[in-house]
Amino acid sequence: MFFALLHDPVQAGQSVILAWNATADPTVAGYKAYYGVASHTYTNVMDVGKATNVTISGLIAGASYYFAVTSYNTLGLESQYSSEVRYTVPAALVRLKIRAAPVGQFVVTVSGPAGHTYQVLATQDLKTWTVIGTVTVGAGGSSDFTDTDAASFPRRFYRTQ
To answer: Helix or strand or coil: residue 11?
Structure first.
């Protein structure tokens, strides 16, 4: 059985699509997709019926998952596991956009996964970073942080943590 794992761009870092070739055995009544966070230790199972693909969602960014598929007949007897596929969910990307505001202030727009909180850090020399505040990304995927002290520095660089 050919088995593939495809990243689902609709929910980047959160879900994957598993796909496989149907078996030629006419007694097969369906398939089960297994997965877990340790090799050959599957803590989750999804009965997908006759479908030859399934979307697995709710995966944690940065974690590795292991997947395998079995087929079963009308009596419920299952085949051996397919070859195992490993997938590491990409870490969520955070983007910064900086724009000038009135009176020497800068607005730092943080875009990333909704609900995540980030520290906003600033530096003048790219060596010594100081936390100047925090921002929690809103439901729309971004939130603003205003650096009200920006005018006190001849130059300033920003990052999140």
So the answer is: helix
Tokens matching residue 43: 């803590």
Residue 92: other Cβ atoms inside 10 A = 14
Tokens of 115: 């609900």
Widest pairwise Cα distance in the chain: 75
CATH topology of domain 3-88: Immunoglobulin-like (2.60.40)
Task: Name the phi and psi angles at 9, rounded to 5.
Answer: -70, -15
66 neighbors 40 (Cβ within 8 angstroms): yes
Q: How far, in Å, CA of 105 to CA of 55, rounded? A: 45
Residues 101-134 pLDDT 10s: 888 899 999 988 888 899 999 999 999 999 999 9
Tokens in use for 19? 């796909």
Please give the angle made by the CA atoms of 48, 51 and 57, to the nearest 5 degrees. 55
Residue among 69, 75, 25 at smallest CA distance from 51: 69
Could you give the percent of the chain with pLDDT greater than 70?
91
Cβ atoms of 67 and 18 closer than 8 Å: yes
At 86-98, the pLDDT tens digits run 998 877 678 889 9
Question: Three-state SS for 62?
Answer: coil
The Cα 64–Cα 16 span in angstroms is: 12
